[in-house]
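Sync notes, pocket subgroup
Present: LS, DG
LS reminded everyone that the earlier model was apo-only. Rerun requested with cytidine-5'-triphosphate included. Inputs:
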Amino acid sequence: RGVAAATPDLAGRRVVISAGGTREPLDPVRYLGNHSSGKQGYALARTAQARGAEVTLVAANTALPAPAGVTVEPVGSAEELRAAMRKAAAEADAVVMAAAVADFRPANPVGQKIKKRDGVDPDPIALVRNPDILAELSAARRPGQVVVGFAAETENVLAGGRAKLARKGCDLLVVNQVGGGLAFGTDENEAVILAADGDETPVPLGPKEALADRVWDAVVRRLPTP
Ligand code: CTP
Ligand code: CA
């Protein structure tokens, strides 16, 4: 289905989506980051808006045009993304974590640019765990709120996805196999939508918009009737 022909089955619903990848500061000019483009999250925002939702897009370090009619909140680190998501989720009917959140951050970011010194090897970078935002949002969900996660796996996609879904406590987990050029930065994706209620919906390789629409189909089916 094209976006223009979308039925307004998300009218009157508020949705919040995270997109992109977090950056964890080492010093004022350097960070640990990842290759997430944000394209899948932006496709989710566009399709939800086209289906009538009021959309907040928490965008971590993306370089994509802001979708028309969508509220975009730029964030940098996982800590900033967490704060923005918690705030927006408190008012949302559905929450989708499509962002790639760094699992670890530098333990001791410094306020001045790190300098090299002749003949001195650099110190190793000590890391600490970031909070699991999806697990937190799932644990704090409002009655009837639908919480969705994404997972890219390189092996044991379905079994690993099922275990991750249970661990996170979300309603839906969209899992896809990575490697071989799929997913990062591309315009297409192939996935399986796993549901906590046991449902399993394979989505064939196609535009990220098409996968986004299948995710909203699964969300709409689980939202309480208004
Ligand atoms: N996620 C999150 N907070 C984190 C890490 C991940 O909210 N600190 C979310 C991601 O946005 C995604 C989902 O959890 O929706 C799954 O991410 P993934 O990296 O696959 O899960 P992890 O629990 O970090 O497992 P792994 O050790 O395989 O990376
Ligand atoms: Ca991870």
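DG: The first strand starts at residue 14 and ends at 20.
LS: The pocket of calcium ion (ligand 2) is lined by residues 103 (CB under 6 Å).
Action: DG to write up.
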